[in-house]
Design brief:
The protein has 351 residues and is of the alpha/beta class. The protein is 35% helix and 18% strand. Nicotinamide-adenine-dinucleotide binds next to α2.
Length: 351
């Protein structure tokens, strides 16, 4: 999409002109609501649908701040990478002194937005010094993922719908060309059609079963297949699972069956690949309010139960999951493989 101009409207309730402080500008382009605010001392913010995607601190004045943010808005709308304004801005990536994963390069699949478990992993891997490639599901998802990829300083940001023939291969080909190696993969995706997920397992239709297993389980096996030749010096493969694989959890239904298959696949892949130094793990977080979780009825009750029953009396965050996952990618964890690691405040040990 090429755009020449955004038609900005000012907030006429605010004073405009010399002596006024902050000025606000609004525009609607398609389904996106854009906002810019700029202050006379050269600071400004650009938000898209209520979320900040750019911040400028040291422009000469309000006018220059607006011009820079307007250019960033155009790049965003044209689907181009958001270029750094060269100024420091608050980062969402925590500052960690020990860059324990420096030199490692990995692929993270499954970032939909800032609540995604994959985003928690990406932040942790990056904070520990790893380089990460990320994917987004489709054009609709791109605008949410791209600002996060920018935070991660990812040089590889590609579309990946695992149902689209060739897209997964294209991602691994690009990694092979650009990096020539791969140290880790985080597979953090799952899908089940509503009628399959929200019904009894005993009633599940064949097509719903197949798509659930395909997206939620087989794609991990396929990613392991594509990663193997790039992990000549070893590596770590991760997937996300849930306790509903082991026990019958109300409303988890067919996804529990898929996660059981996934955990089993982890063990077989670990047995097959660990002689080459490629470790394979499932990470099993406690419930987290993400977009995928919103498809599970009565999810709030699951959160309340998790908090009350877990010995730690706490829900987990995506950051808790991220750092635990990053630890397993470190060389210090080289003899740990085939695990299902619970990051759930101890919930799974309690009757
Ligand atoms: N949220 C929880 O409580 C919880 C708990 C344990 C495990 N998990 C697992 O964590 C993983 C990540 O889920 P989340 O909770 O972060 O939710 P999320 O909605 O943020 O992430 C799910 C991701 O799956 C991706 N996806 C779905 N279909 C796809 C396809 N065809 N091609 C490519 N990507 C596709 C989505 O784009 C999204 O990025 C899932 O495997 C989920 O089962 C979640």
């Amino acid at each position: 999409m090429t755009l020449v101009k955004v038609d900005w409207k000012t907030n006429d309730k605010l004073a405009v002109g010399k002596g006024s402080t902050v000025q606000e500008f609004f525009a609607t382009v398609g389904s996106d609501k854009l906002e810019i605010d700029v202050a006379p001392w050269g600071e400004g913010h650009l938000k898209v649908n209520g979320r900040e995607i750019a911040h400028i601190e040291n422009a000469k004045d309000r006018r220059q701040a607006f011009r820079e943010l307007d250019k960033t808005a155009l790049r965003f709308l044209a689907g181009q990478p958001l270029k750094s304004d060269g100024k420091r801005r608050p980062s969402k990536i925590p500052a960690v002194k020990a860059k324990l994963l420096e030199g490692k390069k990995g692929l993270i699949v499954g970032i939909a937005n800032e609540n995604s478990i994959a985003w928690g992993c990406a932040k942790a891997f990056r904070a520990f010094g790893a380089e990460v490639a990320v994917t987004y599901l489709n054009d609709k998802a791109k605008k949410y993922v791209e600002p996060l990829a920018y935070e991660l300083e990812s040089s590889i940001v590609m579309p990946l719908d695992v149902n689209a023939p060739g897209q997964m291969e294209a991602v691994f080909e690009r990694i092979s060309k650009e990096w020539g190696k791969l140290d880790f993969v985080v597979h953090s995706i799952a899908f089940s059609p509503k009628d399959a997920l929200q019904g009894r397992v005993v009633d599940v239709p064949r097509d719903g079963f197949l798509i659930t297993m395909d997206v939620s389980c087989w794609t991990f096996i396929r990613m392991a297949h594509l990663a193997e030749p790039l992990m000549r010096k070893g590596g770590t493969l991760f997937t996300m699972t849930y306790y509903g694989s082991q026990m019958v959890v109300k409303n988890y239904n067919i996804m529990g069956v898929a996660k059981a298959a996934l955990e089993s696949a982890v063990r077989y892949l670990a047995a097959e690949l660990s002689p080459k130094g490629i470790r394979v793990h499932a990470i099993s977080p406690g419930p987290l309010a993400t977009r995928a979780a919103s498809g599970i009825p009565e999810f709030d009750a699951l959160l309340d139960k998790a908090k009350a029953k877990a010995p730690a009396r706490s829900l987990v965050s995506i950051d808790d999951v991220g750092v635990a996952t990053a630890f397993l990618a470190h060389d210090a964890a080289r003899l740990i493989t085939g695990e299902t690691l619970y990051v759930d405040g101890g919930y799974h040990i309690i009757d």
